[in-house]
Each structure stands twice: as C-alpha cells, then as structure tokens.
Amino acid sequence: MQNTYTIDNNTVPAVAAQVSGDRSAFYNCGFVGVQDTLNDQQGRHYYENCYLEGAVDFIFGHARSIFQGCTLWTCKLPSWKYQGFLTAQGRVLLSEDNGFVFKECTVDGVTPVYLGRGWRFCSTVIFYRTFLSNIIVPQGWDAWNAKGHETSLTMLESECTGPGSNRTGRVPWSRVASGTEVARFTDINYVSSDGWLGAQPH
Hints:
Elements: E1 17-19, E2 24-27, E3 30-32, E4 38-40, E5 44-48, E6 51-54, E7 56-61, E8 64-68, E9 71-74, E10 84-89, E11 99-103, E12 106-109, E13 113-114, E14 116-117, E15 124-128, E16 131-132, E17 141-142, E18 154-158, E19 175-176, H1 179-186, H2 189-192
Parallel strand pairs: 1-4, 2-5, 3-6, 4-7, 5-8, 6-9, 7-10, 8-11, 9-12, 10-13, 11-15, 12-16, 14-17, 15-18, 18-19
C-alpha cells in the first residue's frame, strides 16, 4: 500500500492505509508514504515481517499493536526539514490499554528521526530487542502535545542494539526498561489474549 501524494515537495499528511478493525493481522506487507503512512487507528493488530516507510509520524493512531520483525525505513524529507518522527501514538487516558510495541525490528533509513512523540498525554510506545541505526536523534523522544505531562508517557527501550540505542543524550523523562517490565507488552497475549491470532489460517 503506497501513497505518493505530495505538494510542491512539501510534507503533508497522506495516509497509505487505515486499520480500524479489531483482530487484524498483516504478514509480509508494505506500507509506504512520507507523513502519516499507517493510521493504526483502533483495535488489536499484529504486523509480522512488514515494511513501513515514511518520515513524519508515519505510524500513528490509538491501536494496541505488536510489530514483529518489521523494517522501519525513513525516507527523504524536503531539504528544509532535518528530522522526522517514527511514531505518534494516541493513548489518551491511563485507564486505556493501547500502545505500539516494536519487537525485534530494524530501524534504518536516510532521515534522522525521533523514536516517537507524544500525540496524546498517555502515548505508549515500546522498542524491544530492536536494531536502531545511527539515524536516531540523541534525544530519542519528544513530548510534543504532552509537554508538562511527561510522567504519563510510556516511551520505553529495552535490550535494543545498534548505534541508535546509545542513550547518551536521551530526554530525562524517557528510560530503559528491563525485559521483565516489558514482558506484558511483548507477549503475544497483549494483542491476542482470546487466541484469535493463533486461530487464523496462514
């Protein structure tokens, strides 16, 4: 799925795919755009061995999703823009149970990026055992709309590798988490506690 829409070499929201159904799974799929590539809007979702390309908030939404073994590639931005954002997760309340989990993925590309920014006050994003290339900006994360509410954000890194996993320079409110702490998020039951994923034909 690809959206090639641009205006005068500017960066504008242009969704390539919107996933709003509950219990949705994608295998070996591609999602290509620049800004807002994948609207992972709502529901429980699973992505395996998928390719996701963009530069600004190119995975966003309110879903509860695991991205397993996926490749995230940052594409070129107009010359006047220097950096982008991988994610903009939209968890609104601490009582909600949604968030993006990137498990054993690869992050690389040509545009420097933040791992994510706080679209809502309780944005939740976890990078687990993921290779982070040197495109990750040292700060790592941006509070954005959640400035002043950083303690409500869940933006975690655990057992990541690569030059971008060096946490020197990370924003003070982000932190590294242990495997035990993120186990609930990385277990397949996070998106499939009722067994729907295992019951799907492959």
